[in-house]
Amino acid sequence: MMKVDISKIEKKLDKMISTNEFSKLQDVVIFQNSDGSYQLFNKYHIRKNSDNDIIVSLNNGDDINSFFSLKNAVCWCVFDKLGKYVLANRIIDLDMHLSSIEVHISIHSKMFKKAKKTEDKLIYLAKLNEDKHQKRSMSDELSNYIRNSYTWQQQRFGLKSEH
Asked: Contact 99/68 with Cβ under 8 angstroms?
């Protein structure tokens, strides 16, 4: 993904549109900063602490949530911005549980490989299959929320850019 300098974009946009129109668009736009962090809706800031630690904070610097996935963090911001707090909380829960399931899959895979007895192998295989089923189910649910958040965001952007 190409890194963009927000100040350069703001200068170009200022030349193209009025300040009033720009302030309306900031409410629905997502920018990627040159440091790899993101500014969303003139309200949220997303930064990566590590590959699996994504921090969402308010523009004033207060950390709000930590996520396992950037997609989930952006999705949460969209739902929160839309005032869909129950769904936003569900994103947090699914992200946290999905992270936990990843650890379980890793542990059960190692235990399955180390097991000597057939009974033990069957037990770990059953646990591994259950973990994979839960992961698939949670991933599908998250994908649905991500698609919905994308659609809603596109609709909001379309409405704002028409005015």
From this structure: yes
**Reported pTM:** 0.74
**CB-CB contact of 55 with 63 (8 Å):** yes
Residue 39 zone, left/alpha/beta (φ > 0; ψ -120 to 50; rest) = beta
pLDDT value for 111? 92
- Burial grade of 73 (CB within 10 A; 0-12, 13-18, 19 or more): buried
Query: CA–CA separation, 56 vs 66, rounded Å?
Result: 6
Of 27, 21, 28, residue with least CA distance to 152: 28
Residue-range domain boundaries for the chain: 6-162
Query: What do you get for the CA distance between the two ends of the chain, in Å?
Result: 29
- Confidence bin at 159 (pLDDT 50/70/90): low
What is the 3-class SS of 43-74, one letter each residue? CEEEEEEECCEEEEEECCCCEEEEECCHHHHH
Secondary structure percentages of the chain, helix, strand, coil, to 5: 65, 15, 20
| Cα distance between residue 163 and residue 78, in whole Å | 21
Tokens describing residue 101: 């399931």
